[in-house]
Amino acid sequence: MTITNYKSRITRFFFYLCLSVFICGQISFVHAQNDGSQQNQTGKAGIFAITNARIVTVSGAVIENGTVVVQNGKIAAVGASVSIPGGAELIEARGLSVYPGMIDAGTNLGLTEIGLGVPGSVDTAEGGEMNANAKAILGINPHSTHVNVTRVNGITTVMSLPTGGIISGQSAVINLNGSTQSEMALIPTYGLVINFPRITTFSGFNPFANTQPVDFNEAVKQRDKRLDDLKTLFKTSENYGKVQDAFAKDKSLPYPSKDIKMEAMIPYVRGEKPIVFVAERERDIRAVVKFVEQMKVKGVIIGGQEAWKVADGLKKNNISVIYKNIYNLPVQDDDAYDYLFSAPAKMQQAGIRFCISTGDSGPEIRDLPYHAGSAGAYGLSKEEALKSVTLYPAQILGLSDRIGSIDTGKIANLVIADGDILEPRTNVKYVFINGRMLPLTSRHTDLFEQFKDRK
């Protein structure tokens, strides 16, 4: 390596380092302007009657002029002719539309505050490769500023996932309101997150050296080794569970040793709870399908860039897809510009159960409706696009009897807007979570008020 090339790499490295420090300093300054009061506003409870509204139930026909009654945190009544309880607070919604709260099933919300420069605000991953016992719900910060920024745009529920290693831990499904993790939790431990072993020839980035790609055959061997280790862990966990069950039935047997990681694996290796597999490319998704068949487990794909190419295997094994690639660029140089925009439509046409997610850590989950809207512009019908962020994620998460549509008896997670909720020009006027009417304030509204009158 020449002296010139070495100096060039050093210069580039320090440029990125200084840029990162500057950005982190600016973010820290902005964060210092907020005292956390916005996150602690959990709204007000009561009986509410939303009248003269256009009601987009999602599960059925649109009610062009109807009423939704909210009571005891639930949808007490919905229809064109509904009796309003005495003492209800009336919300006149003429010219407005009522939608079910949107759901993002693939985020890290509450686990990351400032991604760069403040490691103490990031709690997405544990050390080591196998962390089945790690629970996202225990790390979620209910007072994250991302909560308000997200919910004021109509997103009321998310699944927050841990990352890192091969087995990252257990995800949590939460409503975006509450002062504690338990108040927010819908499903404290939904699924086991596995970064499914894949073939990769990327050897990492090193600014001080010319890194060479890993030989493809060697990459295949490395993938196979990681996959064998994963299968061995599953078999070991299954046997661990059998030993624990045997002792529970017969206390005369030797007392078995305890292993919290093995203990956490039991409901997943037995197929009692779903496993969320992170996989993007066709060959990796096919490998997930094969793994699910062999190990007899429940599977969900998150990522799903080329899931539509594996439709038969996914449908045969009842594997749903949480798609999070709308804002990403095509991977291959010869992929069409709309390759990732049109994937949801291809999944819908192939009969794959799917939903759309931002895949974000917090700051941009608020863009979820625009992800769905973009998919709607590239082959997905308007109705299907709306379902992809409401009813479909609720079905995948096993919550369609509680959220995802406007039906009597469901949790009152509602959004009232002045137009099509998937369009950026639409303004959200009211948000309800668990039947509580929330203030439409966030860090963004605070900063707007602070700076709007400056010359």
Tell me what the structure shows.
The protein is an alpha/beta fold. It folds into 2 domains: 33-101 and 405-455, Roll (Urease, subunit C, domain 1); 102-403, TIM Barrel (Alpha-Beta Barrel), CATH 3.20.20. Helices cover 32% and strands 20% of the residues. The protein is built from 13 helices and 18 strands. Strands 1, 2, 3, 4, 5, 16, 17 and 18 form an 8-stranded mixed beta sheet that branches. It has a 6-stranded mixed beta sheet with strand order 8-11-12-13-14-15. α9 (343-350) links the parallel β14 and β15 (354-356). The longest helix has 34 residues, at 216-249. The N and C termini lie far apart (53 Å). Mean pLDDT is 90; it is low at 1-7 and 25-36.
Q: Which residues sit in consecutive blocks of at least 5 with pLDDT less than 50? A: 1-7, 25-36
- Domain count, please report it: 2
User: Sheet bearing the most strands, described?
Assistant: 8 strands, mixed
CATH architecture of the largest domain: Alpha-Beta Barrel
Strand content range: 15-25%
Total beta-strand segments: 18
Distance between the termini: 53 Å
CATH topology of the largest domain: TIM Barrel
Q: Specify the structural class.
A: alpha/beta
What proportion of the residues is helical, as a percent range? 25-40%
Q: In the CATH hierarchy, what is the class of the largest domain?
A: Alpha Beta
Estimate the mean pLDDT confidence: 90
Shape: globular
State the CATH superfamily name of the largest domain. Metal-dependent hydrolases
Helix segment count? 13
What integer value in Å does the Rg equal?
24 Å
